[in-house]
Amino acid sequence: MAKVMHTPTAPIRDIQLMRDRATSIRKHIVEMLAAAGSGHPGGSLSAVEIVTALYFGGFLRYDADNPEWPDRDRFILSKGHGVPVQYAALAEAGFLPESELKTLRRIDSRLQGHPVLGTAPGIEASTGSLGQGLSIGLGMALAARLDGKDWNVFVLLGDGECQEGQVWEAAMAAGHHAPANLIAIVDYNKFQLDGAIADIIDISPLADKWQAFGWDTTEINGHDLGQVTDALEWSLSCRRPACIIAHTVKGQGVSFMENQNAYHGVAPTEEELARALAELDSTLQRAEASIERSGSAARKAGT
Amino acid sequence: MKAIYPGLTLGKATRDAYGEALRDLGRLHDEIVVLDADLAKSTKSFAFGEAFPDRFFNVGIQEANMVGMAGGMASAGKVPFISSFAAFVILKGFDQLRMAVAYPQLNVKVAGSHGGISIGEDGASQQSVEDIALACSLPGFTVCVPSDEHQMRAVVKAAYRHKGPVYIRSGRPKAPLIYDAEPKEFGFGKAQRLREGNDVTIIANGMLVGAALVAHERLRVEGIQVRVVDMACVQPLDEDEIRLAALETGGIVAAEEHLVHGGLGARIAQVVVRVQPAPMEFVGLNGYAESGDPEALMRKYGLTADHVIAAVRRLLTRRNGKTH
User: Fold this and answer.
1) Which residues from B are below 8 Å from A124, CB to CB?
2) Of A81, A138, A255, B298, which cross-links B303 as Cys (Cβ 3.0–4.6 Å)?
3) Which of the four pLDDT bands, split at 50, 70 and 90, describes residue A204?
4) Three-class SS of residue B232?
5) Which of A239, A225, A128 is nearest to A180 (CA)?
6) Distance between CA B168 and CA A205 in Å, rounded?
7) Residue A102: left if φ>0, alpha if ψ -120 to 50, beta else—which one?
């Protein structure tokens, strides 16, 4: 995939293109997890549209040829176990060769099982011990403000992760310091390792909590790219920290993984991989057919 | 505390020197930011906060978040100095020190004040007896326990110059003056030999350096020549100084205001068995202490010159087979 460099002055909001990109990312996810033989499909798949919109919707400013460009926006995957979705996006964006994705979790690979700063390009923080990414993001956002820089910090949190006390320490401190360049997104897929969040320690009402901590808050369908891009657009206009609560489906896009918490931390077998890829390919084909239909409809309408 | 350091003059507390040195350093370097977790008046980081309010962040009572924020600031080019009581910043912030500082090797300086039991009346929950072991267990961390105000000032400057994580422990009470003036340069991994002697070596840091100097004087009167080394830097250790102590004096007494497990003495022992095996004795804590006057605590829990002298005698007895 060619290198992509997005800036807000040249936003790409072609939803169908992003949908295809999301499907490619899903294919990478299941392929790399099957190759690794371990990892976390459910929480990687639920975050695909969020990550796709960030990297390919013109929201995250980056330069894949110069990953340490000082004025880049920062994206921190605080739910570090979902890192296959980020590696896949980084490959699609040209930070990594696609061929490297299958080295995930292997000895000597840059693609560690959870994100590690200084290994793969485009990773901004070491995470995987849950609850820590928002504090790191807050520190970055305040550093940017001190320096008079206009770069933004996006932090993607898990819903189960919101049970960690440190998340609320950071939320409270962010509410106090109110950096407008800090955006949190919660991938609210309703499950954690041991089961349904509502059964273990319920985190609802989640929007009310963030609001009470001094954040501007919105709730969206985290798989509707129109809603995701609108919410990101909105978050950039907020004058204090913004939190997007994205309602998602764990395992989204692979029918037998959807809402099946058994796939929280179990990689697909070869047979499951084949089924998943067949489904995802037919999603792509349906999308192409629909583009053709709408294209010919438009042509008809034009004549 | 004066009574347990006869012949020595008490100077400022090392935490006071930390605060002053940090404020002075802030005048020279704009990239220094300071974070504290609602103990700025106690850790003395408030001096920086008064001078540079824009670069001072009191995060409230949330040590874990403070450490994470510091990691984020460091990765964006700042040089954060963060402080709280040693017992809180190291223990409550440990996972964050691991993930957001040690693992990515970010340029964060951590200051733990009120180290050891000499904080006194507040009791064991506020006394830090495990911080050195934990800080040293973090790969890539430089770990220092300065003995007096002069050395602390040099350590703060050295911490700024060093690119990478540093942990500095300071103390609450006034500390006996070990040095006449600020050392020109403090090198991590370089110990200071304070007294010569060839019968045995006392290697100490923090408040125990004063006790070692008192022990030196009292044993000298008896004709026992004790070498005294201030090993403020626990990680990396001055291995050469340890080797020379074992080789030339035939035995080492380690003395520290910390658990004997995992602190200065345990780390020295690891060097001794590898480079120059020699008998050792350990002056330190074996568990938690309690509330009380600092001096009474140092006496009750075995951290005075008397205890150092007793350890020297035990070592000489073991080595020479006769009672000293």
Assistant:
1) 75
2) B298
3) very high
4) coil
5) A239
6) 42
7) alpha
Q: Residue type at B74?
A: A
- CB spacing of A143 vs B78 below 8 angstroms: yes
Burial of A293 (0-12, 13-18, 19+ CB in 10 A): exposed
- Among A122, A127, A183, smallest CA distance to A151 is for A183
Residue A156's DSSP bridge partners are A77, A185
List of residues 6+ apart from B104 with CB closer than 8 A = A116, A117, A118, A125, A126, B71, B75
- CB-based burial of residue A107 (10 Å sphere; 0-12 exposed, 13-18 middle, 19+ buried)? exposed
- State yes or no: pLDDT of A252 exceeds 60: yes
For residues B81 and B45, is the Cβ–Cβ distance under 8 A? Answer: yes
Catalytic residue among B20, B63, B241, B257: B63
DSSP state, residue B143:
E
* CA distances (Å), origin B319, targets A73, B280, B281: 64, 10, 11
On whether the CB atoms of residues A225 and A14 are closer than 8 A, the answer is no
Burial of B253 (0-12, 13-18, 19+ CB in 10 A): buried
Q: What is the rounded CA–CA span in Å between residue A94 and residue A281? A: 22
The structure's pTM equals: 0.94
pLDDT digits (tens, 9 = 90+) for B232-268: 999 999 999 999 999 999 999 999 999 999 999 999 9
Q: What is the mean pLDDT of chain B?
A: 97
* Rounded CA separation B141/B105 (Å): 8
Cα(B223)–Cα(B217) distance, integer angstroms: 10
Helix axes A225-237, A15-36, angle to 10 degrees: 100
Taking the C-alpha atoms of residue A169 and residue A167, their distance in angstroms, rounded to an integer, is 6
Backbone angles phi, psi at B127, to 5 degrees: -85, 135
pLDDT band at A6 (very low <50, low <70, confident <90, very high): very low
Number of C-alpha atoms within 13 angstroms, CB side, residue A82?
33
Beta-carbon contacts of residue B244 (< 8 Å; ≥ 6 apart) = none
In this complex, is the C-beta atom of A112 within 8 Å of any C-beta atom belonging to chain B?
Answer: no
Chain A nearest C-alpha distance from B242 (Å): 35
